[in-house]
Design brief:
- The structure is a single chain.
- The protein contains eight helices and 54 strands.
- It is mainly beta.
- Among the domains are: 39-135, Immunoglobulin-like (Sandwich); 662-770, no CATH class.
- The chain has a 22-stranded antiparallel beta barrel. A seven-stranded mixed β-sheet has the order 23-22-26-27-32-35-34, with no helix packed on it.
- Residues 1-36 have low confidence and may be disordered.
Length: 1088
């Protein structure tokens, strides 16, 4: 195994010199520029009391916290426009001879073109001062949908873990899946995978292109605000078919300001919601979060700084539940054995995190705004996971970001060209390993209370000679971690250059973006073992030598095969125009081109068209249509050698630690059950008993092998191996008189199989690789295309009062060319009984796993929203989402239920050997159902196998309702809260019949007759509250004491449910793992 420690392996001097030189070259390129992803515009019309326009009026904006000042004059039409303003609070002053001066304080949010019309009053002595004017909530020129999370919400709402992105739950259309906090299901937006969201920090890319989600984490005190664009965003935003999360950090100004905070949690403020009846007190929890942030001038009006630092330590005992195995003495003994194994390992999960940020801003006159920023995080988690302690994982990672930018105003300052250039470098080494590596792989114990005889010699229990009886009748217990050590080292280098200029009624923007991604790493081995013993057998022989096991080993055969070397160069070009056709009608249209060097496609053009129509001054209808291409996520090809990923091969082996003894059911005959080479094996009758009773194999007839067959494989004159004896490579010569190699050859011959059928595997145990490793690496499909989404929306915004807006939006999205892996040469005939697993050319000897765009999805949603901004001491927002989403993808590297795609050929089902004169079934003229239960489509019809998995998407929820609010109470008390109710997650019922519709020899556990994701877990209901009291110590010194509660209702929100039927101790749909109960947090915050 290769050693890799989580160190920052970048030569900072060399990288930064190169980056700075390239950045300076860009600064002198007059043809490059940016769209206003991080800045905004204020524009409007100045009129007199009679509504006549005022030309030549002076309009000035000054930042109240940012050292920015701009002055323009109105044109002949009374229009003014002030551009490239960072988000913040500004004082706007208008003056004109013969009129009173007008002054207003307004808050400008990120990436907005705000319209602010002003009517002047006659007079020249007393000014007309509006201290708290607000910009209109309506955006009459924007066709996109989304939400801006404001500074007050970031500061005053309860934020779990002080992770600002937890406030994504405020955004309409976002599904929050707390049971899967990482990966594609974490925070999907409008049915799109979380990994398809793009994250920007001050305009710089901040997305983890391997795992998805945000890369670098930031101290909450660092974030000024962030905007989430969910659909219809302009061509300037790319590399996302999901949402764009556009984050702005704080900056320094002409005054020194700072904030320090301390937050603490422990179990004294918590409540118990455990499913484990023995847990009666809150579990141990100690969390400390220290933070300091501040900024100010280095050179007044010219150079400013802002910095922050945060340290988090947490020790948390994880709540988990042992499966209910029943009350029989054997079940209690098994549970006691597992408890004795796991209890010493149940130590608190430890989290240690450090987050540092520093930013410089320079203003060179009015024409240049330069920024340099540095962010460094270091996080380590030991014992992460919600399962049994032996299954948990430890992770570590360091992330560094260094960014540069310059926004330039060129030409006439009244109507300039906006030119922005940016460059950044990120280095992100990380590693992952089992917390308890002494457990080699994971074991899923599928235990039986009694043996299911094959063939059945009594009336009860049910016959074991059926694939419907392969698995146990008790809940599965899983212990151990399936993955070995792995690491990744990600490096990103980005440049961007854009330009923005208004020409009459057209606001034109063009730009270019470049991202170089380099990932080196070491892929883990995956070992998962399904163990099938009776309860008593497990007690007697333990996990290695009891029952029969099915071991899956996935990974590279050598260290070199596990190496990861991923590279990609991304280039994006766009042009867009906001065309104000009429005073109340704006068309947003543009074209974007995306190209990833690792994708062959050269045709990734994505047109965008949006419409914003102000039907009345208080009613806006908006609509959009566009194509949105995904970013090349290297995590999708991490195991595809053709892209530089690991050469991962999969082999599944059936283990016989005591020969054919110990099998509780038909599991020893698994190979035969799925159409692979192998005999029908009795788990109760010896060869002598079978011969005496002329017994045949019940499913289909034919010969049956006795339970003692392998015990009779011995040297001439040697006594048979004793019944139930443990057989392995270390003792086989003593037991049989044969060498290990001789025994393998003769054991295979004894059941009519060729040499090589048996091997000595893990722990030296006898096994049969029923599904051998593929002979060639995973290939790339010739039809490879970039995943993309076609999206359409239409909606209406209505202003009820100046502070209240309601919205209604309908979204339709078609996700195309979703990527995944399938066995591309699996023959259609494999599904037919009597033929079994077979392959088409070019490799008729084995499977070809192929990566390609085989899957698709669809989303339709209606979103209703209500928003009242802060006025009269309170603010409130609410939204409801109703969605129907379907797809046919189980995940990138998960095998579908039916992997065949193509035209069904003519197939004929052979007769059973016991009925050679039957009339064979064929699909030549009609479809039929094979005797193994598989449907066989009519020859000549198109079969799209993945559609057998078409069902409700795991990335969307049927109903989501969310309400949030903030109330300023008398005596400087304040209450903030977020209440959320959403439908439970979708899940599939386990296929108790263990069917194999495509004949590939695997069961994926989905009952496709009921439908994938046909069932829904109990609803998720959550209320978070924050109570605070402010003390004004001095004019600029404020202290805030606060207490926060998360999951105030102490709901047992489900994390997982039982998907199997006919388990008396855990009925189908029973919640068997829950999320955290009520937790409290106290805090102290001082600002100055």
């Amino acid at each position: 195994m290769k050693a890799f420690h989580c160190r920052f392996l970048v030569d900072p001097a060399g990288k930064m010199v190169i980056l700075s030189l390239l950045f300076l070259l860009f600064q002198f390129s007059a043809s490059v520029s940016i769209a206003q992803t991080t800045t905004s515009t204020i524009e409007g019309t100045i009129t007199d009391p009679n509504g006549a326009v005022l030309a030549g009026a002076t309009v000035k904006v000054s930042g109240t916290t940012l050292a920015i000042e701009r002055t323009v004059t109105t044109d002949a039409a009374g229009l003014y426009r002030i551009i490239a303003l960072p988000a913040g609070t500004y004082t706007l002053t208008v003056s004109q001879t013969g009129f009173s001066a007008y002054t207003s304080n307004i808050e400008l949010t990120v990436n907005r073109a705000a319209r602010f019309d002003i009517q002047m009053q006659v007079g020249n002595i007393v000014g007309d001062v509006n201290i708290t004017d607000e910009l209109p909530l309506l955006e009459p020129d924007a066709s996109s949908t989304g939400t801006t999370v404001m500074p007050r919400q970031i500061q005053d709402f309860p934020v779990n873990g002080r992770e600002y992105l937890d406030l994504l739950q405020l955004v309409p259309g976002v599904a929050v899946n707390r049971q899967t906090p990482t990966g594609d299901n974490a925070n999907p937006v409008l049915g799109e995978r979380s990994g398809n969201n793009n994250f920007l920090i001050d305009g710089q890319p901040n997305k983890d292109n391997v795992n998805g989600g945000a890369a670098a984490q930031f101290n909450q005190e660092t974030i000024a605000e962030f905007q989430v664009l969910t659909s219809g965003f302009k061509a300037e935003f790319g590399q996302a078919s999901g949402a764009v999360v556009n984050v702005i950090t704080k900056s320094g100004g002409n005054s020194f300001h700072g904030v320090g905070s301390f937050f603490h949690r422990n179990e004294a403020l918590d409540s118990v919601n455990s499913l484990e009846s023995t847990v009666t007190d809150p579990l141990h929890l100690r969390r400390f979060d220290y933070s300091i942030a501040g900024g100010g001038p280095i050179w007044k009006d010219k150079i400013f700084f802002f910095g922050s630092s945060e340290r988090i330590t947490e020790d948390r005992v994880i709540d988990f539940k042992y499966p209910n195995l029943g009350t029989t003495p054997g079940a209690i003994t098994v549970l006691n054995l597992i408890t004795a194994q796991e209890t010493p390992l149940n130590i608190p999960q430890k989290t240690r995190a450090t987050r540092n940020f520093f930013k410089l801003n320079e203003h060179i006159g009015e024409r240049h705004q330069l920024v340099q920023e540095f962010n460094y995080t270091n996080e380590f988690v030991r014992g992460f996971g919600a399962g049994l302690p032996s299954s948990r994982t430890s992770t570590g990672g360091r992330k560094l970001l260094f960014g540069l930018g310059d926004t330039m105003l060129l030409g006439d300052m009244g109507d300039p060209w906006i030119v922005t250039v940016r460059g950044s470098f990120r280095g992100e080494p990380s590693d992952s390993q089992p917390t308890h590596p002494e457990f080699a792989g994971s074991t899923s114990l599928s235990a039986f209370t009694v043996v299911r005889p094959c063939p059945n010699t009594t009336t009860t229990p049910a016959s074991g000679c059926s694939s419907a009886n392969l698995f146990g009748d008790l809940p599965t217990v899983t212990f151990g971690n399936p993955n070995t050590y792995s690491n990744l080292h990600q490096k990103y280098t980005s440049f961007a250059a854009h330009v923005n200029k208004r020409f009459g009624d057209h606001d034109v923007k063009v730009g270019w973006q470049f991202l170089r991604t380099k990932v080196n790493g070491f892929d883990p081995l995956t070992l998962t073992n399904q163990l099938f013993p009776t309860v008593n057998d497990f007690i007697t022989f333990g996990p290695v030598n009891s029952g029969i096991s099915l071991l899956l080993r996935a990974g590279g055969a050598t260290d070199a095969a596990r190496d990861i070397r991923l590279r990609n160069n991304y280039n994006g070009l766009y042009v867009q125009d906001d065309w104000k056709i009429l005073k109340n009608l704006t068309v947003n249209y543009g074209l974007r081109y995306d190209h990833d060097s690792e994708f062959d496609s050269q045709k990734n053009f994505s047109p965008r068209l949006g419409l914003a129509w102000a039907v009345t001054p208080k009613t806006i209808i908006r609509s959009h249509f566009g194509a949105f291409f995904d970013q090349f996520r290297l995590g999708l090809v991490e195991q595809i050698p053709g892209f530089g990923g690991a050469d991962r091969r999969v082999v599944q082996s059936l283990y016989f630690p005591r020969g054919f003894y110990g099998s509780p059911s038909f599991i020893a005959s698994l190979a035969r059950a799925v159409g692979l080479p192998g005999p029908c094996i009795s788990n109760v009758l010896t060869d002598a008993q079978i011969l005496a009773g002329s017994v045949t194999c019940p499913p289909g007839g034919g010969p049956i092998v006795g339970v003692d067959r392998l015990n009779s494989v011995v040297a001439v004159g040697h006594a048979p191996i004793p019944a139930n004896a443990i057989i392995n490579i270390s003792n086989i010569q003593a037991l049989s008189g044969l060498t290990p190699a001789q025994y393998l050859t003769q054991a295979a011959a004894a059941i009519g199989q060729p040499n090589g059928y048996f091997q000595w595997g893990e722990f030296g145990v006898l096994n049969n690789p029923i599904i051998p490793s593929q002979t060639s690496p995973t290939s790339v499909d010739g039809s490879f295309k970039t995943p993309n989404t076609l999206a359409f929306s239409v909606g209406v915004q209505r202003e009820i009062t100046r502070d209240i807006v309601i919205t209604a939006d309908y979204h339709h999205r078609e996700m195309r060319n979703l990527l995944g892996v399938r066995i591309s040469n699996l023959a259609f005939r494999s599904r037919v009984a009597g033929i079994g697993r077979s392959f088409d050319a070019p490799n008729t000897a084995g499977e070809i796993r192929t990566f390609g765009p085989f899957f698709e999805g669809k989303y339709d949603g209606l979103i209703l929203g209500f928003n009242k901004r802060l006025s009269n001491r309170y603010m409130i927002g609410a939204n409801y989402t109703y969605a129907k989403a379907t797809d046919n993808s189980l995940g990138i590297f998960t095998n579908g239920t039916d992997q065949f795609i193509g035209i069904a050929p003519v197939v004929v089902e052979p007769c059973l050997a016991t009925n050679p004169t039957c009339t064979p079934q064929t699909n030549a003229n009609a479809s039929f159902v094979s005797r193994n239960g598989n449907f066989v489509a009519k020859a000549g019809t198109y079969v799209n196998g993945p559609d057998l998995d078409k069902g409700p998407s795991s990335l969307a929820l049927d109903h989501i309702f969310q309400v949030n609010g903030l109330v300023d109470l008398p005596w400087k008390f304040q209450i903030g809260g977020i209440f959320r109710v959403q439908s439970g997650f979708h899940y599939s019922r386990f296929d108790a019949l263990n069917r194999d519709p495509d004949g590939n020899g695997n069961f994926n556990g989905i009952d496709f007759t009921a439908g994938r994701n046909a069932f829904t877990a109990p609803a998720y209901v959550n209320l978070d509250l924050r109570f605070s009291k402010r003390f004004d110590i001095k004019e600029r010194v404020t202290i805030q004491l606060l207490i926060e509660f998360f999951n105030v209702l102490n709901r047992q929100n489900p994390a997982s449910v039982q998907t199997r039927e006919n388990l008396l101790t855990e009925p189908f749909g029973t919640v068997n793992q829950v999320l955290h109960g009520r937790e409290g947090q106290v805090g102290f915050r001082i600002s100055f």
